[in-house]
Amino acid sequence: MTDVVSTAPYCSEDIRKLLRAYNLLVVTRDHERTIVGQVSREWLQSESEDWLRLSSLSAGTLRSVRGREVMVDALMPDLDADPDAIDVDSLLAQVASSDKFVNSNSLPKLEPAIAAEVLLGNLLLGVQKYGNRRRGSPSLTNDLIIAAMVRDAVGRPDRYSAGLPGDCENINMDRIEELFGSAVVQHLYQLRGFIDQFEVSLASGNCAKLKLPRPFASVVMAIEAASLRLIARAAGDEILANLDSARKAEVSALGINCDCEFPELPLLRAQYERTRHAMQLPGVDYGALAEPIGQTLMLAVQDVLEDPGKRRRLVGRRGKAVRDVHMNLPLIESYNASENLNSLATIHIAALEMMQFLEKGRRKSSSTMLGHSLRLAATAERLLGAELEPCIATAAILHDVVEDGSRLVAGYDQSLSNIKLRFGGPLAAMVSELTDADTASAGVQKAHATLQQHNLALPEEQYNVDRFTEMPLEPTATHEPYTLGGVVIKLIDTAMSEEEGIRDPDVMSAWWKHSGIRIFWSHNVRGRIVRPLLLKLSHEISHYEVSPGDYKNKRWNAELIEGLRRVLMFSIVSADQYAVQNLAILADEHQLTVLERDCLIRQFFDPECDADSFASDVVESLLTEERLNSSIAAGNVPESGYVTLYARNGKHDAIRDCSTFMQYRAAAQQRGDIASRLDLRRSRPEDFVKTVHEVVWLYDYRKVA
């Protein structure tokens, strides 16, 4: 066998710990919101992305800073009007008769709690690099930063550790040590003690006399400042006063009066005082922490506390509680991310970018867009390990920020040009290949171009700096194949989208509750991109294992190939699980018994059952028109066009067409062939049966709940 060039692990241990910390935050705290903490599933469901009629929004929401911007964009699209200078009553009068729709992700929402920890990481890394009069503060280690970020995850359930909520495991110190090592555990214990000391000193008003070790004093202050930033944004967006009655009831149960003019004021004042006292702690770094926070966030909040009418200045695209704070952070102000493609700091900054622009973003599941992106990067680390290129993790975090950070969706003007300015041409190019184009066929063309190329290119090979100094960027450029990084992110992104649907079927609404759109999306929308990528990645793995010498001048090795095998298996298993749930939905739409549903699922995946037998013995025998009509009459299905076996034409007499469903099954059989050919299911075959049962159990549980 030909020798292959050996390379050192690419992803540093500090970067891997950061990505694991992001995942831990998402699985324990993505369902928490600033101010109110954990919210109900009904609250999460009400936030899911949707297109809302402008006239359905409350006058209070439309009078807010963001509401005015929404009205101007919807009713005056051809004018660059100043939202603060418009006659708001005149626009409100137009809204009542407007047929315009707006994306719910453009409307103010309480930020997910994980946003505070993302900001905290950026604050502390800035102290590490630029504190101590810009000489740096090495005593503020990366392990201490991780400990600070995950401090509140301990004791909370890992919501992704099991299907059913009651089976989830709680995060304990053993789990922290397993993920991050003993140093992080030690820092965590120390930090808890110092936070307790701060609370005692705060109660007695003696914070200026409390002497904490120098790095820990800055950590305590940064924790308080990060919380203040989130509350300030909520105050400026006037969120609590404009909640619907159900969510107001949840907040009122916490002792917060949402019916007054400024519900956030007491919380804002209390957190301002906490942060002010934390800034007085001896040992807090001044130049890299106290000064930038004091001269932006603290001054802005102080103005609001003196004159509540100024709270509108806290938010918006240039708000003092968001952009001013972020842009004046030493890490943002002084660190050149564009020249440090694979660095720890660049990943921190990417997470902050995602949080700043997509804090309102919610997916159709109960996941936030920030949580989805952070977990995507963390999943890449879990699958690829040390062979993960850090730039792939950064691109994973930023993969949705352009299309979902646009003015149409989130109310911002995010673009590939902005990403190129902040992160450099190569990373912007990586983001561009993941950004959806205006035409749905672009991704399909790019995927087929990838399938036809000789070898997959690593991002560092395809996206070099000189090449992109003058080259214009475009979303999903069809003339270039996906890089290996693009393939990995696309596959993991799709798998996670499927996983969100599996976990939260009850959160889906309208078309997305039924088999038609779900199977169409899985097979004809995302599937047309994923299937060629699965084939290409499987061919690449096979080629390497047969002829490793062909890769001797590339950064390919056995460890990377093993990681890619895990990526491939992750994608296949997720697609199969999503198919199982879709089959359960299809069974309900036809009122099948439990035994009949089991038969449908078993035969769907059985490689020994040919297409003709499946069509006659299952589709025609079990999924009959009579059963569907009975289900429609019972109100379980709005009309036949919602079901995968019928054309979606918006009519009650949709034509029966099983072709998409049969092609969907053929794709599942193809995935099984790939898994068998590469021996991806090295565990016992019955493990897949167990997984099938878990998916069905979760579906039945959510349906009843």
Description:
The chain has 705 residues and is mainly α. Among the domains are: 15-35 and 111-332, no CATH class; 510-532 and 573-705, no CATH class. It contains 32 helices and four strands. The chain has a two-stranded antiparallel ribbon. The protein has a two-stranded antiparallel sheet with strand order 3-4. A hairpin with a 3-residue loop joins strand 1 and strand 2. Helix 17 (369-384) packs across helix 24 (484-503). 47% of the residues are buried. The model is unreliable at 1-8 and 465-469 (pLDDT under 50).
SSE map:
Blueprint: H1 13-29, E1 32-33, E2 37-38, H2 41-47, E3 51-53, H3 59-63, H4 65-75, H5 88-95, E4 101-103, H6 114-134, H7 142-150, H8 173-180, H9 182-204, H10 214-236, H11 245-252, H12 265-279, H13 286-306, H14 323-327, H15 330-334, H16 344-357, H17 369-384, H18 390-398, H19 401-404, H20 416-423, H21 425-434, H22 441-452, H23 459-462, H24 484-503, H25 515-525, H26 527-546, H27 558-589, H28 594-605, H29 611-622, H30 625-633, H31 659-677, H32 686-704
Antiparallel strand pairs: 1-2, 3-4
Helix pairs in contact: 1-7, 1-17, 4-5, 6-7, 6-10, 6-13, 6-16, 7-9, 8-9, 9-10, 10-12, 10-13, 12-13, 16-18, 17-18, 17-24, 18-21, 20-21, 22-26, 24-26, 24-27, 25-27, 25-31, 26-27, 27-28, 27-31, 27-32, 28-29
